[in-house]
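Weekly puzzle thread! Below is a chain. First person to post its structure in token form gets bragging rights.
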Amino acid sequence: MDSGGQQIDCFASPPCSSSSCVKIYLCSNPEDSVVERRALRETVFPRFTEHCRHSLGLEVRVIDPFESSDPRRWPDENTRQQLIQECRESSAGPFLLALVGHQYGAASLPTQVEVSEYQLLLQESQQAGISTQELERVYQRDENTVPASYCLRPSHRHTCCSTQAEVKEEEQSITKAKDAELRKVFQAAVSLCVHSDLMTPERARSYYRSALDADLRFALDKRPDEDIMRRCLVYVHKVVNARGEREKREMSLQPKSESDSSDQVALRPPPTSDQLLSELCDVFLPGLITSSKLLVYATTTECDRRHGYTTTRRRGYAEGLCQQVYSDLVGLIDDLNISEDSNLGDALSREEAEQKQLCDIFARFYDVTRPEEEKVRAYVEQRDQQCPLVVMGGPCTGKTVLLAHCSQHKASHASHKTALPTRQRTSVCGRQRGAIRMCVCSAGISGQETACEDVGVAAERFRAEGDFRTTSSDSDVTESSLPDGVHLSISALLDHLEQTHGSTLVARAVSYLALSRTGLSEAELTDLLSSNDEVLAEDVCHREDIPQVDMERLLMKLKSFLIKRTVADSQVLYWVSRHFKLVVAKRYLGSFEVKRKIHSEIADYFSGQLACDNGKPLLVNQKSRQNKALNVNTDRQPTSQPFVFLSSKDVGRVNMRKVLELPYHLEQSGRLEELECDLLMSLGFHQAMVQAGLLGDLVAMLESDEDSSQFLRERLLLASILKSSACFLQNSPLQLLTVMETNLLPYLEVFPALECYVKEIRTERRCRGRGLGTALCPSPSSILPIQYLQCDRFNEGCVIETAATEFGIVAQIMDDGSAWILSGSGCDMVKLSLSFEQEEVKFAGVKSSGPFLLLSTQCNKLFVWDVTGPEMLVEVKAHLKKELECSQTPNKIEGFAACQKKLFLWGKDESCVSVFDISSETLTHFQCQGSVTCLALSSDGFFMYCGQDDGTVSIFDIKASNLIGTCSNSNRSAVTLIILCEDKREMACVDRNGNVSLWDVADKVQLPRLVKENFNRSESNNILSTDYSEEINTLLVCQGLKVSLWDTSNWELWDQFLAPKGRAFTQAVLSQDGHLFLALLDTCSLVLVWTVSTGECVLSLETTKQPHTLLKMASDVICVDHDGCLTVWDSEMIDVAGTALKMGCGVREVVVEETGEGFYTTDGSEKVWRWSLNTGLPRDNFLHDGPVEKLQLSSNSIYLVSLSAGEIYVWNTETGENIVRISGSRATNILITPNSKFGVSISERGLTRVWKMALGSIVCSIHLYLSDAQVSPESTYLIGRRYGDLLAASLWSGSISKRFSCVESSEHVVAFQTLTEHPDFVVVMAASGAVYTWKVAEETVCRHFQLPYTFHCHPQDFQMSSDGSYALLSTDNGTINLLDLSRVRLCSFKAEGPITKACLDQTGCYAAYVSHPSSLENSCTCSMHARPILTVTRLSDGERIGSVRLSKNPLTLVACERQCVFVGFEDGSVGAYSVSDDMIDEEEMFSSREGLNGQMKQCPFDRTPFSWFPRATPNITWP
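Winning reply:
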């Protein structure tokens, strides 16, 4: 049996290493340290607090017992000792900071004196003739203390709550004089006892010691070394000549006190203040330096004898003290062994540890072993137990304690066998599967209520402790004096706390604790109270902030009723019983407004608003003696609240307290707009949640549907991006910036509210000092859905029918007869339940028209729902055939239409249309000649047009209920669709083969007149679906083998698109703007998107399973899978991605202007596109008569030279004119000289010619072919390889004037590079690995380096920076090999996998390369891990600047001098990525794109680049 009655300290902290707070006790002489303590509070402690929070995630609390300027608020010695002990036990680092000045300080009356010693003091005083009446009046015997003692009465103790608003200065002086007189009487009694040898001098000294001396000795004397070493700091300040001559003269004139009278001369004199100070500084502290390595800093200040220790000198010392203290504290904290990334990643393990700790805490309350415990354990051990466990009992009977104890016992014996569920939350017992199941179903164990009552002894002890906490030993304790019940006991405790600490302070403190989500740390509670106007107003008489020590005393009173638990690596205070919350809610939180106000105050604190509100004037209504309103400036400076604390590493530290508390309090306070805009759409919040491993929780918050949401679609997009990248972000949370940026940039014109989010990304990247951002996003090849929904069914099923209203309501019927409703974006699928005659109705089908949904049931009943009205089904009492009323077979509804309050419906193969008027509940029938296939209604609802299977259209006057006339198409094919063009008074009929007949229906009296018929001449089959857009005058007709588009303005066939070979269309719909159409193919799980203008398939939308149907809503496209799952895409996103401009084929070459503002691309077709980086759009294109093979841009960006079909084109980029077109060149490559005046055409089988750029005239010809040719920086030589040598041909004469040959005849030149910054030199790489420099003009050669045999130079990879400092040698085995010529060393950078592309920037700052993920990453099935990676690495130290996962395969990689990397992709799109480093300003690249939305919000085909045409024929022909 467990030992009962033991004291359980649920408030005790874990060991220092696990504490999350640095709690420091500031020890000082209050009279001699005012300036120093104020300087520390204002300059050191705030900085130190921020340092601890940012670097190690630790909170800081500094307790200054003498912070208040009112001595009545100073704590007594017992309280100070409790505070020191609390700091020692709970501080994660240093706990004591002592300031020892040149004044010792006065001793105070002891708070508590043992009975025997107190009586001895009285006896000796009375025998000596000293009156003890005052001493007996201020002390009271208390038998509750151990041992029994005389204690100071509360009226003579220091208190934290003054009952008077103002105390007259005269009364303060009188009280101070009385206290001084009492101290003299008490010390005289002590001296008498020492004189009579009844008390030892050592014991007597304890009554002479000042608060500084007593606190230091309690903290340091006889303590283990680990409590002192590097945990305590003492600063001793000795002042020589502290008293000036004037002060000494004034002291000499003061009269002697009565204590120096002749009758006291015979007594042994008590030690003076100087003696006690010397003993402290010269004996006690030095001894600890030697024995325990106490850190003591001693400073001596020598003052002028005339002036003494002036204010100026004191301030100077305070400034130096602040610098030293901050440096020492930071040094001690930085030495702590605390992991910086402890909260990065595994949220599940963190929560498991928190729940286990909470379980352990409650298990400690279990005192009495009961036999019912064995029943609980027996239940747990039954593996096949199906019934739930119910534990019954009244309040505070120990139910939670019993379960915690049993769970802990089970875990201790079977932890190695117990499996943890993936996501299981319990309130106490953690995550053990099968350990304890807390349910509220039928009883599982009999007699459990009795067991819980016995186990509740521990809880009753806490109640009793609250009852007796305010009861002294001389009070009468009766049944009537003790509260009856738990709630009354808690109320009595709160009454006592209000009397002692103030009603407002107590009310706010317990309310904050009760309304917090996970509890509050001591520092958080203190900051909240110190920032509350009502609390400060109650304390305004002191004209100061609430001292920290007041908060400590309040927490000490609540110590037994709060537990310290760890939540997200922070220790928080939490009520030990839920009944405290109930009492607090009833007592202080009676109204909804009060709760919202307190939630709002907590939200303000965690949002950081209070941290920016320090020094705010506090206006109160209380009047002073001069009848003036008090205006108090309080020093309110709560700690900052960033989402992630910045540190020396990129990881940072997540502010988990803000992450957990702020969303909850914003929601509870009703600040939903702030919750959405400042939190859910904040990059900082997303970073914190992802780094903390709470990505799933973040997605759930983003997807939550709020009625007041302004940015629901934006949040759904953010959630979709996070879900699609979840696997990648869980492994690489710091890649959130690049993931979000690359996915959001293409759609900013659709979601302009997310521009601020992208700006946050770029600001964050600049703050980090490095990164790789997206300057130009390539066109998307797919689109993320903004929502994915599935029915919450136990059994899988198939969709029978789906329908959608124009208001976004979607209904679907499953094969099991269930109906599911989607009521809009952001909502979940809900099941529609309907009972009839106590049986659940099973549905058979659904149709929609306008705002109405028509649901048919398997029992042949019809129900209609007007989605614009209440959620109510109205039965339609209309049967399609009388003979089927009693049929067991469900009647199939073939068609449904609605106009105003009339419903039109017909059955399969029926010739009758039933019209049901909802208002009057009347039914009308209209009989047609053949079976009805389709129906159209006039806008006013007066006329009905019924299409039939024999090609006939019957026109009815609905009001008159008669037939007006009929018309038929010539081929008698069934009418599938009727379109009324009422403005033109025309009717278009589409038959099942796709033929269109147009009728004039202007005259209602006469029969319709045929205007035209358009027959489909090609092979056709039945129409599968149609989509008509009146706004763009387009009709889409989908058949199995083709999709036809009709221009409805003149009813001409616009275009036809054939299905891919071996496939067939099943459905097609137009996009929102009509520039695209979406189609489903048989046996294809993708939704494919084609452009109407070119017929090219530009997008593929992924679905989970085989699609069933497409639904086009007002702003969405919904794909319904066969199993009922819904995938929702935003229509505007589809339009943007599908109409994004890109080249027709893969980008082969990218040429960048020197300014970096524009670039040119070619894909091997006849076009060269010029792009603007500022707008992200192509400006114009240059047309050629053949495929473009080569492209060059002059250094001044004026001339663009292209090689196409053997002809050379020279374009003036400023005018777009093709100034020169040269034929007969036989060139295979072209170059431009650096001075932009000449061009060089290189031919492998003909002459290499040098010609003038502007005219095309030949300057000279070079007869030898030089491979890998380059023009020298000074535009004088053409340098290239030939037969292993390096030749330099003059650009003026064409002759070979210079030759480089290796010393060894067998060695060949494999690569070389001219240097722009060193124009006279060429770096040469030999086949043997030798590195040479060749000075061309002087033909001198210098050998610099020999590559080891493990390094090889690959000519296809070889590149050099313009200054020759770095050379890219090869990219073997996923490694980039570099030669650092500036320091003559070889460097290797490891990539994530095989490298496909690599390049150096010309400045020699960084290298960019594209690699494919390793096989380890490829084992992951997510798309992000399989994508190629663009990485940029700094060359000077090999540090990675940043990386981006590319959405498609790259073909071209170019790095320009403006710190930008261009990537050309295989689908014809281009991406530009900006390199941000500490020395690079990235802002200029994006400043010109801030106002882009207004420009891009236009038709995509209006953004088509302007075309420049070439000369019709060459104007220059070379021989």
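Puzzle host: Confirmed. Bonus trivia for everyone else. The radius of gyration is 44 Å.
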